[in-house]
Amino acid sequence: MTIIADAAGRYFASFVVTTGQEETLPQVDSEVGIDLGLTHFAVLSDGRKVAAPKFLRRAARKLRRLQQGLSRKKKGSANQKKAVTKLARAHARVGDTRRDWQHKLSTQIIRENQAVYVEDLCVVGLGRTRLAKSVHDAGWASFTAMLEYKAGRYGRRFARVDRFFPSTRLCSACGLVNTKMALNLRAWDCACGAAHDRDVNAAKNIKAAGQADFNDRGAQVRPARVLAPRGEAVTHPDATRSTRSVEGISAL
């Protein structure tokens, strides 16, 4: 067993149990491509759009107030320690709320679709741009990780499409690739006559690219060993009892 203490003063016990064979969901005909973004957290190839909840933005005022209160406390004092814990708990609540929301959405998508395709976004690179705060608030990496391990657990297929694939500029109807497209252009018309919503078109192309790659490789879905999601402690069944303390706020 592993005991974890976080910066918010919370304790977690992590242990391993042996269960029966993983549940395999009944097969369905639908497959989906997902275009992740900031205005909409996710746009699906079937036209559905999931609004970005922006949990960190919504909590920004309270977090700023707690941070300012912490900065006024005397260094090393008991009041400073209390302020640190209070701020950490506020951040943890943001992370917990985001994680719960992502779990519900990812489970719904996996249950409804036999295969899920997403773009292999360079989150680290985007985190260095002026959109860094919004990118980290969105939590794309944790969401795609949930989709991946749940697909393996329930017998679904999951694949990432190359990040350099021109999903936005490619017409999903005729295959024409535009040379460039402004970021503020949310809808466009192709020369073939097709009218596109930028994000829905990208999701359709991601789905088509994922299906084409799967067919080219002739891959088969095999139940894989499901690892714990990143950020969760793990012990092996034969591991000796141990304790571990984690500093910092790992929930964000």
Automatic annotation (TrEMBL):
Pfam families: Cas12f1-like_TNB, OrfB_IS605. Residues 140-206 form the Cas12f1-like TNB domain. Residues 15-126 form the Probable transposase IS891/IS1136/IS1341 domain. In the C-terminal section; belongs to the transposase 35 family. GO terms for biological process: DNA recombination; transposition. It comes from Actinopolymorpha pittospori. It comes from the Bacteria. The lineage of its organism: Bacteria, Bacillati, Actinomycetota, Actinomycetes, Propionibacteriales. The keyword Metal-binding does not apply. GO terms for molecular function: DNA binding. Keywords: DNA recombination, DNA-binding, Transposition. PANTHER family: RNA-GUIDED DNA ENDONUCLEASE INSQ-RELATED, TRANSPOSASE. This is IS605 OrfB family transposase. Residues 229-252 are annotated as: Disordered. InterPro entries: Cas12f1-like_TNB, RNA-guided_DNA_endo/Transpos, Transposase.
